[in-house]
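User: As part of a screening pipeline, I want to sanity-check one entry by hand. Below is the sequence and the SMILES for S-adenosylmethionine. Please return the complex as structure tokens so I can compare it with the automated output.
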Amino acid sequence: MTASTQWQLARDSAKRYQTVLTPAILGPFARALVEFASPQKGEWIVDVGCGTGAAARYAAEAVGSTGKIAAVDMNASMIDVARSLPVVAGAPIEWHVALATDLPLDDQSVDVALCAQTLQFLPEKQLSLIEMQRVVKEDGHVAVSLWTPIEDNPYFYTLVETMARHVGVETAVGLKAAFALTDAAEIYNLLQESGFGQIEMQETQLDLLMPELTDFVPRHIQATPMATGFNQASKAIQQTVIREVAEKLNRYAENGRIQIPFRSHMILCKK
Ligand SMILES: C[S@@+](CC[C@H](N)C(=O)[O-])C[C@H]1O[C@@H](n2cnc3c(N)ncnc32)[C@H](O)[C@@H]1O
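Assistant: Here is the complex for your manual check:
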């Protein structure tokens, strides 16, 4: 497991993750996961692999000031950026640099564990899921989001395919790793083998209004583990990647706006 396939970003990239990727794509999906998990007022939540904390902040609003949020990520740069953001109304959020296999929480201390677009990157998936069960109360649940196959996600598919062709597969893997766990049967088996008795899965599609792509694509690349390989390519190749991605996705443009479908599994599991 490399730093690239575990989505390890340095401080500048973590900032770009928050300013570029979160508003456009990850934020809306973090909100959708919180809505799917439907936490109640006063509940305690942990956000596992919180990144810059999109799901933690939506959960803080949902549970209100009587609730409590713990947000955990192994990447100190992500946590630094999360801590630097304005405090949201609602529950206080405690930020922790820790591994998903070693959550800094007592047994049965939270009502809901959220894991938003992170399980696919965890090297020890089963151990991490068992750890989430340890911290969740007997009647609590674990809510996980994972992209459906990359072919269902035309923005990511086009970017990965174009990057692989012009820059190299070893660079494209920095984004393709987000699609390492997409098969519904494989996910179900993993959850069952990790000890969950009840597993409810659905697919959620969000048609997201995207920023202008020739501007967004290069900024997005810089917020991913693809940045190093892309930056080593010539300016001409970089421009080709950006132009081709924008041209191919132009089929989603209408009346000067570009709205692209993104699809994710939303999964609710109980012990
Ligand atoms: C694609 S980001 C998702 C972040 C956030 N949940 C969101 O929806 O924006 C994946 C996150 O998983 C974290 N991560 C990867 N492996 C981890 C591990 N073993 N323990 C904790 N966090 C991990 C990364 O540092 C990264 O912040």
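Points to compare against the pipeline: DSSP finds ten helices and eight strands in the chain. The beta strands are 44-48, 68-73, 93-97, 110-116, 136-147, 198-210, 253-254, 257-270.
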